[in-house]
Amino acid sequence: MTPVTDSSRTLLRTCPLCEAVCGLEVTLDSADHITAIRGDQADPFSRGFLCPKGATLGHLDEDPDRLTAPMVRDRATDSWRAVSWDEAFGIIRERLPEITRAHGNQAVGLYLGNPNAHTVAGALYVPLLIRALATRNLYSASTADQMPKQVSSGLMFGDPLTVAVPDLDRTDYLLMLGANPLESNGSLCTAPDFPGRLKALKQRGGRFVVVDPRRTRTAKLADEHLFVRPGSDAYLLFGIVHTLFAENLTDVRVEVEGLDEVRAAAAEFTPETVAARTGVPAETVMRLARELAAAPTAAVYARIGTCTAEFGTLTQWLVDVINVLTGNLDSPGGAMFPTGAALGIVRSRPFRTGRWASRVRGLPEAMGEFPVATLADEISTPGDGQIRAMVTVAGNPVLSAPGSSRLDAAFADLEFMVSVDRYLNETTRHADVILPPPRIVQAPHYDFALLQFAVHNYARYSRPLVPLGDNLSEAEVIARLALAVSGQEPTPGLDPLTVVDEIVIAGTLHKAGMADRRTELLGENTTEQRIDMMLKLGPYGEWAGGTLNLQVLLDNPHGIDLGPLQPRLPGVLRTAGRKVELAPRQLLDDVARLRARLRAAAPEMVLVGRRQLRSNNSWLHNVAPLVGGSNRCTLHMHPDDVARFGIDGQVVVKSAAGTLTVPVEATEDIMPGVVSLPHGWGHSDSAQAVAREHAGVNANVLTDDSLVDAPSGNAVFNGVPVTLTPA
Ligand SMILES: Nc1nc2c(c(=O)[nH]1)N[C@H]1C(S)=C(S)[C@@H](COP(=O)(O)OP(=O)(O)OC[C@H]3O[C@@H](n4cnc5c(=O)[nH]c(N)nc54)[C@H](O)[C@@H]3O)O[C@H]1N2
Ligand SMILES: Nc1nc2c(c(=O)[nH]1)N[C@H]1C(S)=C(S)[C@@H](COP(=O)(O)OP(=O)(O)OC[C@H]3O[C@@H](n4cnc5c(=O)[nH]c(N)nc54)[C@H](O)[C@@H]3O)O[C@H]1N2
Ligand code: SF4
Ligand SMILES: [Mo]
Questions:
Q1: CA distance 79 to 260
Q2: Minimal CB count within 10 Å: which of 48, 74, 230, 638?
Q3: Distances in whole angstroms, Cα of residue 264 to Cα of each of 242, 300, 350, 710
Q4: Cis bond leading into 570, ω under 30°?
Q5: pLDDT tens-digit profile of 103-139?
Q6: pTM score > 0.90 for this model?
Q7: 410-426, pLDDT tens digit by residue?
Q8: Which residues have CB atoms below 5 A from the ion given as ligand 4?
Q9: How far is the CA of 439 from the centre of ligand 2 (A)?
Q10: 20 CA → ligand 3 middle, Å
Q11: Which residue out of 176, 217, 304 has the highest number of ligand 2 atoms within 8 Å of its CB and is therefore the one to mutate?
């Protein structure tokens, strides 16, 4: 341990970089520089776990390329200058409302990127910006990620936020498809030290099977790894469902609607039929079904590899169908619904999609959003409702969205763009104004979203470790941006944040019948008072018969253990009949699309993605200790394919959407016929010095934005047909 002297201090905070929500011990010197980061041993959930990204948060903080003042671009010279906050908001107030006055609200698009799921500003203040813009042109990383899970959960359970997660610490059998938590640290399954939890599963005698076209580090840890043809997981899972019915292995323990319809839908997907398409032998499919049925407890878990695919929603649906059929939904050791501590949105009507459709391609909305795969269409296609201005918050869609060359070109044609971001990067270079959030250590932290998906109920709040100084909090940036896009000036003497917080607090208390308790809310500012209110009204809250409030979390800065996951059916259901909808009409209809593709000729070579431990989507490549070594942008390819195509060093990869030249890394750990390229690279023109040196190529030049998973509109990143030629 470094001794804590007068000039240095060690403080606690949650890591905001990924879904594992690890507790950190951050040592700061007298000038508030981060001098050391360790895992917080006393955090009851993460128990000291730390990965290389969390450990290098100090380097990110000291990055000389990180923006520390608002930036404005001169379009004529394409040059940037730092300006005051007042000047930055003044420009926005002048330019953006002019565009909506002339062309209507739809003329402004909003893209919300991944880090919004990790910030208080994203959770509590971005909704204000959404309301201020009042546009249907709302896009986010969700449709490049987990929308299939949300749509299937919404249709089955009535609420898209009611997502079942594997009860990782108690299950006897885990079937994992398309996830690699040894690199990603887990997703839609908040579990710090996911690797340690998987080892514990094995140590207690459990079994763990991985299905992935690559033999990943996770697959190597597993008891069994099965190669699967990319994009074919829905067939594999249907084969399991078929077997469960055919061999009378079902044991449904929750109230469901639609059991017969599922049986009928699965009838044609026999293990033999699906084997040719998936590459998984029929006997193996049947054995998986028998093992899942026989295990005392079991959970099926499928993540990004299966979501960002042509049949993402059907796959996610079948995951929970199997969890139901084997008696494991909502049961300890199975797939369970976590209970987060903060009051969530209470949905009164069952979830549905397609309440409106996108202008150009007629794609249905889901959760109020259009697919990011059609953002370029909406900017580039003239007509009434065309997007002419964009706001991006914490996103880099020029690297992360499918068919991103089109998006890059479309952004260049915008009349005006504002980005809230830490960096000048591939996306924000198109902005007229960039508004930077403060240092991570200057932000408060509570995981509103991620703790709803945690494998153990838990809560932790961190106050800012360092005062804001001249910076604005990201909450205030968003609140002032919301005013500016409406053409409003802040009222002198009134803090815009306080104004919006008071409105939210009054509305929430009124709805809860607690209007007279405003003065009881604790906290240093109105943001904290909102958090106190959400905790008090939440399931463990002081105002709901429990004991939780902000003070309890402040008194327990390592976080508090709220116990193992508990059964929550039927209370958590929001379906019309308050039963699990096992066969939603919309999904049964989509089975026709799946059936039609069963016998389609398979492309010779297909592309999938992969994540790297020391990367974070598109934005940690400027942190020197993280890049290099194994963290490089290379195309993984089986040695037989390398030899067959006569490739030596570099290869030209061509898809329907674009062409890239990339270095090849031959590895036995990938299926023949499949190549893998990580996303988030492609920094050759970057303003960030380190990232530019480790540029790599943008995988999304190859992905095709004309293709989406029909029910959710989700992007298709895996199973992209490609051709390969030696460079
Ligand atoms: N081919 C392919 N493409 C993919 C994927 C894939 O597997 N394959 N995965 C998809 C997935 S799952 C996701 S989630 C998306 C992610 O894609 P995006 O939503 O575009 O998110 P990031 O690439 O993580 O970019 C985050 C941006 O936020 C900025 N930032 C970081 N912290 C903060 C902050 O605190 N506040 C603000 N305002 N900005 C911040 C960073 O500088 C960066 O510009 O990519 C998707 N794209
Ligand atoms: N280090 C690191 N951690 C991260 C991120 C990061 O960029 N870097 N990103 C974060 C984000 S935004 C997310 S959403 C999560 C995602 O977390 P995970 O879901 O664990 O994502 P990956 O590690 O990409 O693992 C996906 C796996 O799916 C496999 N796959 C590809 N196609 C198919 C297919 O058709 N079927 C099957 N069965 N498998 C397939 C790939 O080979 C890969 O091994 O990770 C988060 N954590
Ligand atoms: S696993 Fe995720 S939350 Fe934990 S230290 Fe690493 S980046 Fe941070
Ligand atoms: Mo993601």
A1: 64
A2: 74
A3: 9, 22, 25, 22
A4: yes
A5: 999 999 999 999 999 999 999 999 999 999 999 999 9
A6: yes
A7: 999 999 999 999 999 99
A8: 145
A9: 28
A10: 6
A11: 304
